[in-house]
Amino acid sequence: MRMPRLTAFLTATAVFVSAFTFAAQAAEEVHVLNWKGYGADEPWAVADFEKATGFKVVNDFFNSEQEMLTKIRTNPGLYDVVMINAAFNDQAMAGKLIQPIDVSKLSNYADIAKDKAGSPMLNHDGKVYGVPWVWGLTALAINEKSFDKPPASIAEMWDPAHKGRVIIRDDAVEAVQFGAIASGQNINDIKDMDAVKAKLTSLMPQIKTFWSSENDWNQMVASNQIDIGTYWSGSADRAKTHFKLPVSLVIPQEGAVAWLDAFSIPVGSKNVAGAEAFINYMIDPKFYVEWVTKVGAPVSANTKAVDALPEDSFNRKVMGSPDVAKRIQFQAPITDEQREKYLALWQELKVNVK
Amino acid sequence: MADQLAIGSRRGLKPALPLLLPAYLWLTVAIFLPLSAMVFFSFMTDLPLAGKEWSFTLGNYAVFFSQSLYSTLLFASLRLGLEVTLWCIVIGYPAAYVLAKVLKGRSREAIFLLVILPFWSNGLVRIFSWAMVLREGGILDTALNAVLPFKINIDLMYSYPAVIIGLVHSYVPYMVLTCYLTLQAIDDSLIEAGRSLGASRRQVLWRVIIPLSMPGLIAGAALIFVPVVGSFMEPRILGGRTGTFYGTVIEDQFVAVFNWPLGAALSFILLAVVLIILALAAPVLRRAG
What we know:
Chain A has about 350 residues and is α/β, with parallel strands linked by helices. Helices cover about 45% and strands about 20% of the residues of chain A.
């Protein structure tokens, strides 16, 4: 009988100790999961938020939406705030990974554009599962050194002049949707998969490498190794404003993929109050203007925040123009079957390149 | 040897237990348990997280055989493993010979240090420094163009050779170390005897030195081949669009698409293939060794 008693004692001690450390942590830390270098981890913003609220921000990062889902699934209770692309909100909710948000606690929520706040991707059964933060485009970006004037068409990616100097993201869904735009199709309802495949197959020999993080893209331009590639609008802005790189965004006449990023609170969050305070801070006009000016950012979902920008700023003038609005297609949720089909196609393309 | 065996069997396993226990406890906790969990995963339809439905299936293994994609990649990875091992022998063996038989004292220590130096730096740092060297306008390109009278364009980055270079650099110390140990153990008088009996230098090399150092060569080759076949970091960073290998696809299943069961199944197929190759090679190698 000695052993079980000893084991019980040890277990009890361990439980006590961990309970105490958890309680001590949970009181003031807000664990945030987001892309690296994407607003939430700006040192000035973190310092400002911590000073205003007394919470301490702990940032963690992911490199793909699937990695983000993996991280919340495998670390229940660790994160308090997670940034989820609206197209993945469905999946996260269905997997019971995120909880409904009490938007009455967010003073800035009322200023969010109605079409974004009311998006069926973020609202389920009358409850809000995601607070729209920013939206932007997956369009093209060019190395200004390689072009006299910016190209108008997506076909520029296939121009033999850029052979070995094109870059696209190593992401099956993004690649397939890009192929859909290039072949003149609706990204959310791709009818002719063969056309997409043919387009991407002919693009492969043009490609230098695949990028997975902003840093990859910026380094390729800094060392003048690429001419053109797919890029996110906020990242292109950041590359120009913050890193002073010769990068400019091109919204091709064929269109571009638009996405909406939103903040959610994972199930099991130990600091919901801190999470609400952080989300509210992130959609505040003051933070947004500072983010755009200092670093470069996508377009805020908060109308007051966009109106606070100078009238000729890119995010207000170009991204807000009705002409652009007509061309872009917002990403809708994707089923697991579609995702697997896209991945199979993407892997096949990558293997055939050998 | 016989005496030792006798002592061992007389005293039995019991007294040795306290000595073995820490190592085996550690192996059980750190390797056996996670590995068995992975075997378990590889037969599941889905991960039992967040109340998802799951059942047992052989489907994950069937995927490998139903799509030519995976066998193509496995073949490419095996080829990569062979090529890297071959280059490691070509580069590492002569270095080990010089260390063991030619150099003495201080100079040996200095050269030895240079060989194991890569072990002291982080693998990712090594790969990224290769990225700086190999790319167009990188260190190699700039240096060669500064010296050479004509213009050449070196852009090895994001290609198959870049992957080979990175991997050979990471793994060559294993070959040097294992070969050094066996070469050093060769009695110099055997070489002298061969020479005095009229063998040419080349004959001594082929008939005396290489056969006697074969165990080191084989150990080095196995140490290099197995991890290279499953490598994913080097191909991903240095290979660019040609950097898709069996290892990177397994990594994708775990990190990018969260299909742990398929990733686990693919890993165990790789393990099985590697074991089969080593088993097939064993008789040949034993005779050689």
